[in-house]
Write a structure and sequence with these properties.
about 180 residues; mainly alpha; Arc Repressor Mutant, subunit A; 3 domains
């Protein structure tokens, strides 16, 4: 009670009560957001969705998210750059899939594009090639069904047609040699 300036037995008018309840709702929403951020970094949009699901008003959510941005706990640009770097090393996928995933997380298109500037065509090709070699194992690429499945797999992982055709050509050259 001391946090909001109230004492036991103190009379409170309607205005002071509304102010107190609003401050408590903001505090509660901020605590919920901090708990979510404790698990992992999140975008502003992800936090907005989660707080909305918990029943907080748009006004309260906006206040909380603005405060968290001001103290640098929410930064969509940093989130996107870190997320892309993590995906490149742990779960390879192509540019289009990464853009789709970032958009799903609420990252603005220009921020997603900026984060993906670190992935060039050569790197995308290398990622696709490594993934294809792991996926293929000892399977023969001459088999049209294997080639079709590999192509579909790489496409679902978001690799460009250019990268996929380059991978198929490189793997076919390995078979010939």
């Amino acid at each position: 009670m001391h946090e909001v300036g109230l004492k036991v037995g103190q009379e409170v008018d309607a205005e002071k009560l509304a102010e107190t309840l609003s401050a408590e709702e903001v505090r509660s929403a901020k605590e919920s957001a901090l708990i979510l951020l404790d698990y992992r970094a999140r975008t502003r949009r992800e936090l907005e969705r989660r707080l909305h699901q918990k029943g907080y008003t748009e006004d309260v959510i906006a206040k909380v998210l603005d405060k968290l941005e001001n103290i640098d706990l929410i930064d969509d640009e940093r989130f996107a750059a870190n997320w892309v770097a993590s995906q490149l090393s742990h779960r390879p996928m192509g540019r289009s899939r990464m853009i789709w995933e970032l958009r799903k997380k609420g990252v603005a298109p220009e921020i997603a594009d900026e984060a993906l500037d670190q992935v060039d065509k050569e790197q995308e090709f290398e990622l696709a090639l490594n993934l294809a070699e792991r996926k293929l194992g000892d399977a023969a690429l001459e088999n049209p069904e294997t080639k079709r499945k590999l192509t579909g797999f790489l496409r679902r992982r978001g690799f460009s047609w250019e990268a996929i055709s380059g991978v198929l050509n490189k793997l076919a050259m390995k078979i010939e040699n």
